[in-house]
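**User:** Everyone, produce a chain:

**Assistant:**
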Amino acid sequence: MQTKHSFVDRIEETLIAFLLGSMTLITFANVIARFGFNSNILWALEATVFLFAWLVLLGASYAVKKHSHLGVDAIINMVNPATARVLGLIAAVACLAFSLLMLKGAYDYWAVFADLPPTSGRWFPTGFDLKARSQSFYEVQDVPMIGALTFLEDLINYGDEYEKMPKVVPYIVLPISMLLLVYRFAQASMAIFRGETDRLVASHEVEDEIEEVRALQGEHD
């Protein structure tokens, strides 16, 4: 099980590193083009914005998994373990409910760009709005169309060609990231329910890491 978790961690960490590295390379290339060749990569800024959005949204669920989000544990540290577990479970369920609402909103926003029907209902899905107007022909402003994605023209754009990348591509991170967030909060809720932890955010993780490093140094000495 530990090996499986480590493999999944490496995939997530590699993807996050790829997004960050891509942002850095595109920005650096644009700076070189601007100041070295008096030119400009027209799509660089927009592509960087999309990559940053992917980095933040995908990183949010990974941070839940690693207990890396900021939190205040002053009250939890003042109560007994049983009460702390109950408070932690309440917080986890509240975050799970919030992420479910975000998932509905994210899917509804993205669906029209994918020529799919959004859900009906203001807060909770009550069905699908089959009368919603498709916006699959919407394109981003600057990022050019990629040859590998031309299949989308027949799939969702009724054969019409895209000059720029369709919005369905960069915006797909919205439902994916919210689905991952739901999954991570569900995992956290189950961990608290089973008594494996009593909170969403690791308490004093910096101090714990320092103690681990000191212990390792002591073993080597």
The helical segments are 2-37, 44-65, 81-111, 151-155, 173-193, 205-220. Residues 144 and 164 are 4 Å apart (CA to CA). The first strand starts at residue 119 and ends at 120.
